[in-house]
Amino acid sequence: PPNQVIFSGIQPTGIPHLGNYLGALQQWVKLQNTAAPSTKLLYSIVDLHAITLPQDAQKLRQWKREGLATLLAIGLDPERSILFHQSSVFAHTELMWILSCTASMGYLSRMTQWKSKLSLTDDTSPLEESAKSKLKLGLFSYPVLQAADILVHRATHVPVGEDQSQHLEFARECVTNFNHAYGPHLIAPKTIMSPAKRVMSLQEPHLKMSKSHVDPRSRILITDTPEIIYKKLMSALTDSTNSISYDPVARPGVSNLLELLSHFDAEGRDAQKLAVVYGDLGLGQFKKVVATTISESLAGIREKYAQVLNQDGGAYLDHVEREGARRARENANATMAIVREAVGL
Ligand code: ADP
Ligand code: NA
């Protein structure tokens, strides 16, 4: 069997929050540290995906840089894992075009993420003209780019959160379509489902923690200082019962804090267990415990982040960027040689 190749990506749209970290990034590090030596790992800052929604150029450049620094800060090793910006490897967009020539419009239209990004909730009714003109071609077709990201590196495994499983299914569909037309050249990737860790908003605990929520107190960033983490937790929405118990339906706020605490608990206790342990504390005291635990758990990431961002006046990050791009290009170009030959280009 071919050696394993693991690929995943994250958009450079701001410093990752705890949802991104616990729901996705932490898994990347775990895979890196447990993979067989023969396993190839590629993790990409997918800047071309970020521009499916309007971005400020200067801000995007900054976020790409910070994105790379956060990958290093969480423990990805650039010698072991290939870390790179998607747009520095042209083969991604070239393969996207080739795949789009055998991909079906019908399948793409049934995918739901572009609808949610345009805040269209009705999945069945035909789009009105006004919605159609708001829908940019790139946002509509970005699952094809995502498929190309994976297939161009011959990934065998892709770690994703549940929200992405539909896109992985589409990537496999792209493989079927391409291979049917040109021969068995592309590899169908398997999904590695990230352990279900849905982190909820600190301000609206019935919603997922998300960078798209306006109130910055709704999320903790992995580089937040202890002071900021403390403030955000103190202002977290809970309820008027001044005690600790685990009941996600009746007490979503407190229950979310218990879940958060359990993700960082050194003894690996679950939320229910922790509710018993801290049952006698008042809400304020309990929030303090959660703040301290999270701050201490993130201390290493915070320090490493500050260190790599400024290392050698930025020359270290330049070096990581260059080396990652070189290795990713080499890997992708090998696939493109096969694809071009098969297609007749
Ligand atoms: P956001 O929702 O903040 O825009 P992204 O869509 O960029 O985040 O998320 C990148 C990945 O992080 C997702 O594929 C998902 O698996 C994970 N993720 C995002 N938010 C959460 C959350 N609140 N809980 C768990 N995982 C999350
Ligand atoms: Na999202």
Automatic annotation (TrEMBL):
Keyword Aminoacyl-tRNA synthetase in annotation: yes
Compartments, as annotated in UniProt: Mitochondrion matrix
Group of enzyme by EC: ligase
One BP term from GO: mitochondrial tryptophanyl-tRNA aminoacylation
Keyword Zinc: no
Main location: mitochondrion
Tree of life domain: Eukaryota
Pfam families: tRNA-synt_1b (PF00579)
EC number(s) given by UniProt: 6.1.1.2
Keywords: Aminoacyl-tRNA synthetase, ATP-binding, Ligase, Nucleotide-binding, Protein biosynthesis
MF GO annotations: ATP binding; tryptophan-tRNA ligase activity
Gene Ontology CC terms, in alphabetical order: mitochondrial matrix
Family per similarity comment: Belongs to the class-I aminoacyl-tRNA synthetase family.
NCBIfam families (alphabetical): trpS
This protein's name: Tryptophan--tRNA ligase, mitochondrial
